[in-house]
Specification:
Layout: H1 7-20, E1 35-36, E2 54-56, E3 59-61, E4 65-68, H2 75-91, E5 94-96, H3 101-105, E6 124-129, H4 139-149, E7 153-158, H5 160-165, H6 176-186, E8 191-195, H7 202-210, E9 215-217, H8 226-233, H9 237-244, H10 253-263, E10 269-272, H11 278-287, E11 291-294, H12 296-304, H13 306-325, H14 332-335, E12 341-342
Parallel strand pairs: 4-5, 4-11, 5-6, 6-7, 7-8, 8-9, 9-10, 10-11
Antiparallel strand pairs: 1-12, 2-3
Helix pairs in contact: 1-8, 2-12, 2-13, 7-10, 8-9, 11-13, 12-13
Keywords: Cytoplasm, Flavoprotein, FMN, Isomerase, Isoprene biosynthesis, Magnesium, Metal-binding, NADP
Protein name: Isopentenyl-diphosphate delta-isomerase
Catalytic activity: isopentenyl diphosphate = dimethylallyl diphosphate
Length: about 350
């Protein structure tokens, strides 16, 4: 049985904090409100011709969307994960698991991450904190996580701020790049590096790719603020004060996408962090992303009901299709050629 101090119990508290989040905690926005897609009054295509299909990790998808899970490993979180996985299969979207660290501490938790039967035909991404490589997690451990969840790739999430704010957090990030490199050489599936809400710069992305990382998920500022969640979960006034100071920390998602794409023109790139609708997805793709990841809004919809989740997903895809139609982009590759308009800011991010 897992006690209240366990990783699994903390996951349930984190989930509740995500569901309770109202988005009014002073955090940075993702930067998408400052962007406009050029409206084409004469698109010269039919809406029925617009295709949102793409390919990711060798699998054809219905849209360039990744359902990014925020947590997992407990009976309560599995209810939501199962709904998200079923939606991913029905609409052919990529699906990301929450951190699987709990599986290493409690092997019986593995069943809460096994969703391949629910999503047999879409990419599934395993997930582990990169810093755990400095705390005894081995290549064999990572291989086992991937095999048990039948995943197509392993996401290594980088979360120094969250760990620094979390009581008992793992804050030794020294020498981590070399261990990531060793893992990339030996793991039989691609490795994707992502932040958890504070962004990855072009410089750091280049370091990671040079070490063997296959793709980057910038996971920039603008979405779920884990500094504010950790602040709310802190047991002391000082912990809450420290966490609140970082509400506006990080690289906005839009800037991170541009920075990484300029540094690495060919690397698979996922934009996540603060994307709210299909128009934001279209903007992210036009900025240079290959895929767009959304977590918080989908988790909230899934917590409400399976019907609410499917309605949200269908609205996202239709919003994307209409945005593509109104820019004259008949497919995702054409959308990548659309020039984004920056308003009220310098266009040289």
């Amino acid at each position: 049985m897992l006690d209240d101090g366990s990783t699994a119990a903390r996951k349930d508290r984190q989930l509740q904090a995500v569901l309770d989040s109202a988005g009014d905690d002073g955090r940075l926005e993702g930067g998408f409100d400052a962007l406009r897609l050029p409206h084409r009054a004469l698109p010269e295509i039919s809406l029925s011709e617009v295709s949102t299909r793409t390919v990711f990790l060798g699998r054809e998808l219905g849209a360039p969307l990744l359902i990014s899970c925020t947590t997992g490993g407990t009976p309560r979180t599995y209810e939501i994960i199962a709904r998200l996985a079923r939606a991913a299969q029905v609409r052919r979207l990529a699906f990301g698991l929450g951190s699987q660290r709990v599986m290493l501490e409690f092997p019986e938790a593995a069943r809460f991450f096994q969703v391949r039967a629910l999503a047999p035909d879409v990419p599934i991404l395993s997930n582990l904190g990169a810093v755990q490589l400095n705390y005894g997690v081995t290549v064999d451990d990572c291989r086992r996580l991937v095999e048990l969840s039948e995943s197509d790739a392993l996401v290594l999430h980088l979360n120094p701020l969250q760990e620094a704010l979390q009581e008992g957090g793992n804050t030794n990030f020294s020498g981590l790049l070399g261990k990531i490199e060793a893992l990339c050489r030996q793991l039989p599936v691609p490795v994707i590096a992502k932040e958890i809400g504070y962004g990855i710069s072009g410089e750091v992305a280049r370091q990671l790719v040079d070490a063997g990382v296959w793709g980057i998920d910038v996971a920039g500022a603008g979405g779920t603020s884990w500094s504010q969640i950790e602040s709310k979960l802190a047991s002391s006034p000082r912990g809450r004060m420290v966490g609140r100071a970082f509400a506006a920390w990080g690289i906005p998602t839009s800037r991170a996408v541009v920075s990484v794409r300029r540094a690495l023109p060919q690397v698979p790139l996922i934009a996540s962090g603060g994307l709210r609708d299909g128009v934001d997805v279209a903007k992210a793709i036009a900025l240079g992303a290959d895929m767009a990841g959304i977590a918080g809004p989908l988790v909230k919809a899934a917590a409400a009901s399976e019907e609410a989740l499917m309605e949200y997903v269908d609205a996202l895809v239709q919003q994307l299709r209409v945005a593509m139609f109104c820019t004259g982009a008949a497919d995702v590759s054409s959308l990548r050629q659309v020039e984004v308009i920056w308003e009220g800011q310098a266009s040289t991010y």
